[in-house]
ATP synthase subunit alpha (Marinomonas hwangdonensis), 510 residues
Amino acid sequence: MMSMFDGLFADLKQARESFEPALSLREIGKITSVATGIAKVSGLPNVGYDELLLFSGDIYGIAFNVDEDEIGVVLLGEYWHLQAGDEVERLGHVVDVPVGDSLIGRIINPIGKPLDGKGNLGTTERLPIERPSPAIMDRAGVSVPLQTGIKVIDALIPVGRGQRELILGDRQTGKTAIAMDTILNQRGKNVLCVYCAIGQRASGVAKVIATLREQGAMEYTVVVVTEGNEPPGLAYVAPYAATSIAEYFMEQGRDVLIVYDDLTHHARAYRELSLLLRRPPGREAFPGDIFYIHSRLLERATHLSEELGGGSLTALPIIETEAQDISAYIPTNLISITDGQIYLSPGLFELGILPAVDVGKSVSRVGGKAQRAAYRGVTVDLKLAYAQFEELETFARFGARLDDDTLKIIEHGRRIRACLKQPEFAPVSMAEQIAVLVALTADLFDDIDLDNMPAAEQAVRDAAASITDDMVERLESTDKLSKEDKTVILELARQALETFNTDTDSGEPR
């Protein structure tokens, strides 16, 4: 019996002597105060700027103000249970987000927590949310169009892959609808989409996600969500996290579209955090680096050179204006950063002209180079005719006596406007758009009554379905629209519009 105990004691003695404790260095601090969305922390002398901190209850925070005696922390979760005296631990790395193909079709928050009830994301790879933008020599020119499926944009304000095109307008003018139509039109075009909702109402986000699911767009879309009732820290990091997810795919040589909805909420969240952290306010109480937070975000959107895979990241940031003031602080900042803007007019929206794109105030600075040659051949005259119409329409409202040529320009402009109208979630293919534009520039719609224009335009679009696959390939190539192809399209349009032409004597359809 004693021999058995002797052997056990010997084993215990050997285990004790061979044991080497594994020491891990941890740096623990304490909360000194908590406010709305921020906390003040002391006792972390080696913490770095933007380092991730862990609070009790698995709440994360970012070291934002690193002062000599105190650290200002932006909280990234439900902070209501935190109180002064609670422990805070350094994690030794910056904020990162999970990336990978398994994110496609998923809905997550900016720190990678799934929100769709489908379980873990199934990816171990992570990227920092803040990454340097590609160097100038690593970029290539914008040369391939990103078809939005919206006639007025594809024809008059084209967007290229790798471009940054701002969408701005007052609230409830259809900004999100344009972004959604663009996402829906990427089906079958080998373009991945990332939709980033920043501080939106939960009902609005749910509606967007329901539309994406109904239209089958979630198969190629990642949704990053922060709702309006969440801490401002999550709204601040959301667009950076979404961009890192998009950059992962871009660096694989794929084409990606990212929508920021919207950066007005992002700027306001950053202003709120900065004021709470006692940073000096500037114009409209925004901090002095408000321009930088958006420029370092949007500069990450680009078209990479062939040596780096040739992938692209196209950005559609959305901004909300107040009382049509596009010269306000944040809108002018974004206009100067981006490669053009699509302005949505409340006046056009109230008149039922949807999408309510104000062509005169909208511009695409680099998209014209990427636009298909088939478009350029028919839209040059269209832009001029539409600009003349908008100018003359203003004078016509005064009841002035107009000559026949002026009346003809006005009537033609009304047909252009009618053809550029488009319902929500109904993207138009390139062949259909070209057919309508060719018919417009040939004045085929001018004899048709305005009330019959929707049906007439639909007839031309239906006729475009008979365009051969060979011709469609030529339209989508870099070749100009040949005379033969234009003649074929014109003949199709004429045949489709025969039943809509009105008799000049009776004014009735033939």
